[in-house]
Every structure is written in C-alpha cells, then in structure tokens.
Amino acid sequence: MSYDEELEEIKRRKLLEFQRELQRRLEEEERRRRIRLQKEAILRYILDPKARERLYNLRLVKPELASLIEDQLITLAQSGRIRIPITDDELKRLLISIYEQTHRETRIRIREK
After folding, report:
1. Host H or E run for residue 28
2. At what angle do helices 63-79 and 49-61 cross, to 10 degrees?
3. How far does Cα 12 stand from its chain's mean position?
4. Domain extents for the chain?
5. pLDDT, tens digit, for every residue of 21-68?
6. CATH number of 3-102, picked from 3.40.50.720, 1.10.8.140, 1.20.1060.10, 2.60.40.420
C-alpha cells in the first residue's frame, strides 16, 4: 500500500467516524425534542394556564429546578396523587414546600479575639 493510499484510507475512516458521530448526535437531539414535546403536552393537560405560565417563568430563571418540578408534577398526576388541573395557587404551595425542604439558611458568625 502506498503512502497516498494509506492517507486516503485514513481520511475515509475519519470521515466515516465523523458521519457516525453526527448521526448519533442528530438522533439524540431528536429524541430530546420528542421528550420535551411530550412533557409540554402533559403539562398543558395537568396545569391551568396561570400555573403553566408560572412554571415557564421559573424555567427561564432556574431551568434545572423547573425540569425537576415538571417531572414531579407529571409523576404525581399520573399516579393520581394530585388533582387535575393544578391551579396556580396549588403550584405556589408546591414550590414553597420544595423551597422549604431544600433551602439552607446561611449564618455567618464573626468571633473577635
């Protein structure tokens, strides 16, 4: 095998590897998009418009927290442990409850010597 043939073979393998990686990424992005659309459809069903707006606003500020809450709301609704549709006041109570469970109060003590 000549040097040029080896170089072409390496290029071909790299191109094939790049195409596979690109395809994998596209499939993963499409899967994430489908999941997001499914979640949004479920949330449209289980939240009233004001509660949905509050959750979307929370998503703008704290996307990780909003995603966690969305998953919890969907689980609660599917298991029948929460009344549907969830109103804005019920969502507020849930958010306050989660905040109280996860919030840590920070205290700073200054000791003088």
Report:
1. helix 3-46
2. 140
3. 37
4. 3-102
5. 999 999 999 999 999 999 999 999 999 999 999 999 999 999 998 998
6. 1.10.8.140
What is the CB neighbour count within 10 angstroms for residue 82? 16
The answer to whether the CB of 69 falls within 8 A of the CB of 76 is no
Alpha helices (runs of H) in 47-62, residue ranges in sequence order: 49-61
Exposure class string for 10-45: b at 16+ Cβ within 10 A, else e: eeeeeeeeeeeeeeeeeeeeeeeeeeeeeeeeebee
pTM for this structure?
Answer: 0.67
